[in-house]
Specification:
This protein is mainly α. The chain contains 16 helices and no strands. Helix 6 packs across helix 8. The N and C termini lie far apart (64 Å). The relative contact order is 0.18.
């Protein structure tokens, strides 16, 4: 009986292994290039994955690539909960919390309205606005996992990840110059950098490149934005549920399992009982899961599909980025 029970599992594992290993190898190569050329690892993972998209055609690697792009992605999102604690948020007081909540909500709403005005689906604005307002590529992947299935969903996700990674790198270079031009103090600079730059790595680079205090403030504000991922995922899940059945014919759960994992891990991390080594291991595992998943997503797309996106999506993401930066500066000026 044990042998019979294990046989389907072993067969399933065997079918997934080639695609997962291929995705992991691409992720490893992307990490190597990122470390040596100091560019976003997600961008390298996407580009390398797209160059190997022949592996996602019918063959031994296809099931594993499909699994990796879906389930490994969700595991990585769940592990993001280990990045934040409630005490980190409380340490800065209510003003930065209000600033972050307002900035995230307003930017997403503006993104959805702008997407509609440009002729796109409102959900595309939710995807790009969420990626811009929350935590870049990680938010794009998390939201994509929550949104309803759509023929253009993967292409929209890949475009969003590429766009937000490029804009985040540009912001890491330009925003410190804006800080100096406006003569912001260390805390204001940290709030601005942490409240506007898309990806965590670029926030850390820009913040600590200015000063220790600026870097600390920027990191905590950025983690507040990461915490906003949960309510936005819940909204996306409610939209998916309201639209009815998914590919499998079942009504999706109101709270996806990776969102539950995110909540649980954030709560556990907030107790202060989690050793630093465990936190670091969870964060590193999350990073690898996301890089491996985006490599798999890259394998599943065709370059010619991305070449047809046109100028409007680019204008949408640039507009959302500029809007967020101006909004945060205005709120800082108002004393938030």
């Amino acid at each position: 009986m044990t042998t019979l029970a294990q046989a389907p599992f072993a067969a399933r594992l065997q079918s997934l292994f080639p695609g997962f290993i291929a995705s992991a190898m691409v992720a490893a190569a992307a990490s190597f290039l990122s470390e040596h050329y100091h560019a976003p690892v997600m961008l390298f993972a996407l580009l390398l994955g797209m160059s190997m998209n022949f592996l996602a055609a019918d063959g031994a690697c296809k099931p594993g690539i499909e699994f990796t792009a879906r389930e490994i992605l969700r595991l990585g999102v769940a592990l993001l909960g280990m990045r934040i604690t409630f005490s980190q948020i409380a340490a800065l007081g209510w003003n930065p919390v209000i600033l972050v909540v307002v900035a995230v909500v307003v930017t997403i709403i503006v993104g959805m309205l702008a997407a509609r005005a440009l002729g796109f689906q409102t959900l595309f604005g939710l995807l790009t606005g969420g990626a811009t307002a929350i935590c870049g590529a990680s938010a794009a992947l998390a939201l994509a996992a929550s949104l309803p299935a759509h023929p253009g969903k993967e292409r929209a996700t890949l475009f969003t990840v590429i766009g937000v990674s490029a804009l985040s790198t540009l912001a890491m270079i330009v925003y410190p110059m804006i800080v100096k031009a406006l003569d912001l103090n260390a805390v204001q600079a940290g709030v601005f950098l942490g409240g506007t730059i898309h990806d965590v790595a670029q926030v850390v680079g820009a913040g600590y490149g200015m000063s220790q205090e600026t870097g600390d403030t920027a990191t905590v504000v950025k983690l507040m934005r990461v915490a906003m991922l949960l309510p936005v995922i819940l909204c996306a899940a409610m939209i998916t549920r309201a639209r009815g059945a998914t590919d499998g014919g079942k009504r999706p759960p109101l709270l996806p399992w990776f969102a539950v994992g995110f909540i649980v891990l954030a709560a556990v991390n907030s107790t202060g009982w989690v050793p630093t080594l465990v936190q670091q291991a969870a964060n590193e595992t999350s990073r690898w899961c996301l890089v491996i998943a985006i490599s798999a997503l890259g394998m599943k797309t065709q370059l010619k599909e991305l070449a047809t996106v046109g100028i409007k999506p680019i204008l949408l993401m640039v507009g959302e980025t500029v809007f967020l930066a101006v909004l945060v500066l205005l709120m800082l000026r108002w004393g938030l």
